[in-house]
Amino acid sequence: MSGKVENLPPLHHQVYHWPEDLLRPDIVLLLSISAEERIRRLQGRGLERTREEAELETNSVFRQKVEECYRRMENPACQPVDASPSREEVLKTALHLIKNDSAFSE
Q1: Exposure string over 26-38, b if 16+ CB within 10 A, otherwise e
Q2: Please, are residues 2 and 20 in contact by the beta-carbon 8 Å criterion?
Q3: What letter does residue 48 receive in the DSSP assignment?
Q4: Rounded to 5 degrees, what are φ and ψ at 73?
Q5: Partners of 74 in the beta sheet?
Q6: CA distance 83 to 50
Q7: 78 bridge partner residues
Q8: Pairwise CA distance, residues 17 & 69, whole Å
Q9: Residue 82: what are its φ and ψ, rounded to 5°?
Q10: In which region does residue 75 sit, left (phi positive, over 0), alpha (psi from -120 to 50) or beta (all else)?
Q11: How wide is the angle at C-alpha 25 spanned by C-alphas 19 and 29, nearest 5°?
């Protein structure tokens, strides 16, 4: 994970494929939110900042690379969900994606 976003393996690289020796989920939801909103929500919860949160806060390149790796995942691909609206709206969006996923509509 060192280096720039441009240094990540290219699209369709084996690293982005779900490992064959693990159970494969039917759907993966990738909830994303702006760094500012993430910090605001964490502060509102009164939770102690974890080492990972500190890293995400201070190293925006690391955060960008993690997000890009998830976006490149294949079989199954991550379904992006904007987590900035209210909990109810995010849940509504997630349920809509789950219900409309072909694995669940059979």
Answers
A1: ebebeeebeeeeb
A2: no
A3: P
A4: -60, 145
A5: 17
A6: 20
A7: 28
A8: 11
A9: -75, 115
A10: left
A11: 110
* Cα 44 from Cα 88, distance rounded (Å): 18
Of the pLDDT bands very low, low, confident and very high (cuts 50, 70, 90), residue 2 is low
Both structure tokens of 31: 């909830």
Residue 83 tokens, joined: 């987590």
Instruction: Please count the other Cβ atoms lying within 10 Å of the Cβ belonging to residue 70.
Output: 15
Per-residue confidence (pLDDT) for residue 102, from 0 to 100: 61
Alpha helices in the chain (DSSP H): 35-45, 51-58, 60-71, 87-100
Interatomic CA distance for residues 17 and 33, integer angstroms: 24
Q: How confident is the model at residue 36 (pLDDT cuts 50, 70, 90)?
A: confident
pTM of the model: 0.75
